[in-house]
């Protein structure tokens, strides 16, 4: 397998970074090939803008998705976007590694998605969900957060963690065709002991060694909807 | 009322921008005072990093939230963050105006949240939800998207739109203490006629004129949870 880890933490000594390093190490021991896009280290630009295109197809009215579609065809996307696209094309498994910021990904990772998941390749027309451009590839989230696990769930104070992950797991990864594996979540990280952190790393290693047995999350199948994407009876 | 509109669209002729302009115009006609943070026009930096602090409290191990708390107290946050914080302090109503990118906000707006919603002011300790730092203020989303309205809902192809909004409405705005008004959503915008767009603007004006009668969304009350934030029986 080729694995791409997209990592978004500003501190190289962070526990989030330790999890990323652990994943890289475990995968390489298994004989897989690992690439890492360390967005802070790369000083990745997260702002979707006119600058992402060598030239504009419709300069009088800027539509980001339409320009993506045009530039992808013409091979005129900004070089930093093109490089990331090539990494994803090579990858069988995409991992997002990040600290949860405001129950979502940090802006630098959101911008990586906004700019790299281009219209025309990742989706377009009826190509989404199980027909999305990335069908056949897997993806998975690995993230850290400050809250305790019991604070999330149906009647818990913050509600279900799955709901906060919807934009990324369903609206982004599944929409683009990825098979989404259950996330690995490290709770309460800033407040736990070093021993507890070591235990999380041990659990993460076991999780990664069992990856091929994990049941992917379920999302809609295009076949269950009609031409206008209304549910079939 | 003082109103702050945080706007995140790269095209000044976009319909999202027309909605923002309409809101500004309606509020000013009502005698309110309106400030706009036009993030693309400001070239706002969305990356949370060490550069956000004049000096670091713990330079050997960078923890973003802890540095925010320290710098807010010391008045040593980066000037562009401080300016936005002052705007929010003045505001009675905060509006996010944006095109939905990957069922979420564009990275430039996510980064505005990551950097501006500082620990120690917006939240901290037991100050969240109805005890959050912004208690007493209102907030509301106004956004455009490509999908049709029937594509969202319980059994619809994309599921409930409310679920995608959870990270921003619940995990961010409600968490920080804002009373969250129901969002104004403009569907299918890139594909509709100019007449349909004019009708959306008319509906938006009626929506804004009725703002004081809108029932806010409901979120947990801290009083229903114990000291450790477990639900009370």
From TrEMBL, chains A, B:
Domain of life assignment: Bacteria
A GO term for molecular function: NAD(P)H dehydrogenase (quinone) activity
GO cellular component: cytosol
Coiled coil: none
Native source organism of the sequence: Acinetobacter venetianus (strain ATCC 31012 / DSM 23050 / BCRC 14357 / CCUG 45561 / CIP 110063 / KCTC 2702 / LMG 19082 / RAG-1)
Record-annotated Flavodoxin-like fold domain positions: 1-200
Entries under InterPro entries matching the protein: Flavodoxin_fold, Flavoprotein-like_sf, NAD(P)H_dehydrogenase_qn
Family of the protein in this entry: Belongs to the NAD(P)H dehydrogenase (quinone) family.
Keywords recorded for this protein, A-Z: Oxidoreductase
Alphabetical list of Pfam families matching this protein: Flavodoxin_2 (PF02525)
Claim: Oxidoreductase is one of the keywords in the record: yes
SUPFAM superfamilies from the UniProt entry: Flavoproteins
The protein, known as: Flavodoxin-like fold domain-containing protein
């Amino acid at each position: 397998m080729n694995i791409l880890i997209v990592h978004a933490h500003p501190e190289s000594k962070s526990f989030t970074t330790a999890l990323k390093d652990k994943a890289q190490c475990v995968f390489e021991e298994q004989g897989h090939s690992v690439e890492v896009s360390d967005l802070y280290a790369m000083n990745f630009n997260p702002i979707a803008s006119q600058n992402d295109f060598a030239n504009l197809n419709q300069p009088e009215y800027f539509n980001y998705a339409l320009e993506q579609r045009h530039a992808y065809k013409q091979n005129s996307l900004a070089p930093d976007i093109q490089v990331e696209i090539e990494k994803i094309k090579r990858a069988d498994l995409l991992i997002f590694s990040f600290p949860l910021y405001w129950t979502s990904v940090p802006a630098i990772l959101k911008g990586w998605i906004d700019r790299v998941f281009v219209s025309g390749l990742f989706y377009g027309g009826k190509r989404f969900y199980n027909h999305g451009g990335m069908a056949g590839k897997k993806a998975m989230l690995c993230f850290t957060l400050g809250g305790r696990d019991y604070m999330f769930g149906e009647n818990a104070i913050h509600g279900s963690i799955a709901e906060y992950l919807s934009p990324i797991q369903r609206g982004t990864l599944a929409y683009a065709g990825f098979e989404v594996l259950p996330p690995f979540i490290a709770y309460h990280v800033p407040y736990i002991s070093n021993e507890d952190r070591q235990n999380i790393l041990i659990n993460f290693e076991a999780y990664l060694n069992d990856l091929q047995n994990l049941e992917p999350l379920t999302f809609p199948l295009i076949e269950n909807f009609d031409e206008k994407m209304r549910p079939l009876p």
